Amino acid sequence: MTNCAVILAGGQGKRMKAEMPKPMFRVLGEPMLEWVISACEKAGVDDICIVKGYKSEIIDEYIGNRYKTALQSQRLGTGHAVMQSVPFLEESQSENTLVLCGDAPFIDSETIKRSLDEHIKSGNAVTVISACLDNPCGYGRIVQSENGISAIVEQKDASEEQLKIREINSGCYWFDTKQLILALSKLECNNAANEYYLTDTISILISQGQRAWAYMTENSEVVLGANDRKGLLALNDIARKNVIEKHLENGVEFTCTDGVVIERDVEIGAGTHILQGTVLSKGTKIGKNCVIGPNCIFENAVIGDNTKLNYVQGYDCRIDDNVKIGPFVHIRPNSHIKDGVKIGDFVEIKNSVIGENTAVAHLTYVGDSDVGARVNFGCGCVTVNYDGINKNRTTIGDNCFIGCNTNLIAPVKLGKGAYTAAGTTVVKDVPDYALALDRGEFRLKDGYSLKKLGEKATREN
Ligand code: UD1
Ligand code: CA
Predict the structure, then answer these.
(1) Are residues 50 and 165 in the same domain?
(2) For atom 1 of ligand 1, which residue has the closest CA?
(3) How would residue 450 be classed by pLDDT, with cut points 50, 70 and 90?
(4) pLDDT by residue (tens digit) across 68-116?
(5) Span from the CA of 229 to the centroid of ligand 2 (angstroms)
(6) 457 lies in some domain
(7) Are residues 404 and 265 in the same domain?
């Protein structure tokens, strides 16, 4: 049994007031379209065609060549959108086709799988995923009869009686592919919106003697979409809460979730405590018993166990076990902070390795550097990595002591156990256990300011 999916993403979403196809608006950092794609893939349906229309180039750019696409050059309705995928359906030759809306991100793989089982077992030509809503306003209503459903009626076209129906169409369906292609060829657009409604395929299939059935899902969130910015924020709120609930079940601690936004693929170990204002994005993995926050931002960061990070931002980086960082620290891409490191306020690390138990306590920039274990940086040190043309590396051996306000002019290498005196600008490699000291002669001039300013200096004292 082979299955494919058609995702409708041609619509504009005028009320969003932005020039972007609606399915490209983001929920927890990912386009709604991506949520729908990943539900399909997780359900084992990976032969996917995306129907694009409004601002199709934005979809093209996002999708690249991951999936096939079909262009709907005019927006003539959901039925018309699926018609554009017929060449894909013919080529795919899948027995069943899943049709979904790209702007309803919470469809899940379980619902897709269970409705497919039902679809196959019952020999339906179409199985509509439906839900029961307290407020069904705006959705197509499912009209039930003894032998399955008899029609889906859009809000605009519904009678008083039909408007009372609370079972609604999620916009997600399993079709027998051959029957879908046949029904699409018979679609017309004589309705309130003058559109080709995909939902009209139901009555067409029934009139051909086929079975149409609804699979009602318990999880009514699967139908939710956003029509405007307020609706999009509501989707984000729901997704955010669901993700946090999953972590609570896994043993993660939250005292207060204000400002906490965790994207859905983030992993967090049990016993870790997430504090207010923490934003954890794609690719981030955090170990056990850490304290993260307040006010941390991590994207694609891999963090070990027992690490404490306070007011830290980190991108494409690795931070190992028993590390303590913050406040006000920026860990930039390609950095690896090893076990037991301590990094204090106003420090930036870029494209560098910081060895075990090294301390970078204050006001320091370490860029393009390989720093050994147990190194101590004084306050205000700079690896001078950029000469205006090239970026150069600095190497610092184990047990070095970098005095306050040291400039290390890269490329430069400090051997193990080397010292630099405070204020030194290091322009040459320093051998193991040596001291680099670079200071002009220290002079005192007695009464200097009195002589320079005369009476003025005495008066102001
Ligand atoms: C549709 C259903 C309705 C269902 C609801 C669920 C029809 C006629 N109605 O209504 O029964 O309850 O979804 O959300 O199908 N699209 C295109 N091209 C078009 C029109 C739409 O690609 O010409 C895409 C949109 O981008 C969107 C999806 O199809 O992703 C649904 O379109 P939308 O206009 O939102 O349909 P609804 O009126 O909500
Ligand atoms: Ca809609």
Answers:
(1) yes
(2) 171
(3) confident
(4) 999 999 999 999 999 999 999 999 999 999 999 999 999 999 999 999 9
(5) 14
(6) no
(7) yes
Residue 409, classified by CB atoms within 10 Å of its CB into exposed (0-12), middle (13-18) or buried (19+), is: middle
Q: How far apart are CA 423 and CA 407, in angstroms?
A: 8
Q: Which residues of 146-178 are buried (b: 16+ CB within 10 A; e: fewer)?
A: eebbebbbbeebbeeebeebebbbbbbbbbbbe
Cα–Cα distance for residue pair 116/129, rounded to 1 Å? 10
Q: How far apart are CA 57 and CA 289, in angstroms?
A: 45
Which residue's CA lies nearest to atom 6 of ligand 1? 171
How far apart (Å, rounded) are the C-alpha atoms in residues 43 and 9?
20
Dihedrals φ, ψ of 155, to 5°?
-45, -50
Say whether both 44 and 148 belong to one domain: yes
Active site residue 362: yes
Structurally, the chain folds into a number of domains equal to 2
Nearest bound ligand to the CA of residue 100 = 1
pLDDT digits (tens, 9 = 90+) for 99-108: 999 999 999 9
What is the structure's pLDDT at 460?
A: 67
At 121, is the secondary structure helix, strand, or coil? helix
239 and 215 within one domain:
no
User: Percentage helix, strand, coil, to 5, in the chain?
Assistant: 25, 30, 45
336 and 302 share one domain: yes
Residues 351, 205 within the same domain? no
